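Bit of a strange request maybe. I'm writing a small parser for structure token strings and I need a real example to test against, not something I typed by hand. Could someone generate the tokens for this chain?
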Amino acid sequence: MTSPTDIDSLSHADLLAAHKRLLGIVNRPLIKDFIAAVVNEAAHQRDRWGAEHGASKNPEDWFWNVGYLSGKALAAFKAGDRDKALHHTVSSAALLAHWHEHISNTKDPTL
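Reply from user aminoacidic:
Good idea to test on real output. This should exercise your parser:
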């Protein structure tokens, strides 16, 4: 593993390999450690959708999106797919973290 200060000395192939390894870490659905999984999923969501995506949402959008993901968790749980239910629970929590950030950074929370 290289430190951030060593990055300038890496070859293009090494940088691509490191990028691929990091994407594999960030984009895999973690289901065991809830907090680590939520942090990882939140990073994945931000990478996939961009920070601007949340800025365009109104409170109802956040509410319905959380409900949609939580409903997917419920459906997976009822179908006996424990891993998928845990993943959707984590993705719901990560979305709530983004909503929390959005509210925290909004001067008028009623917007």
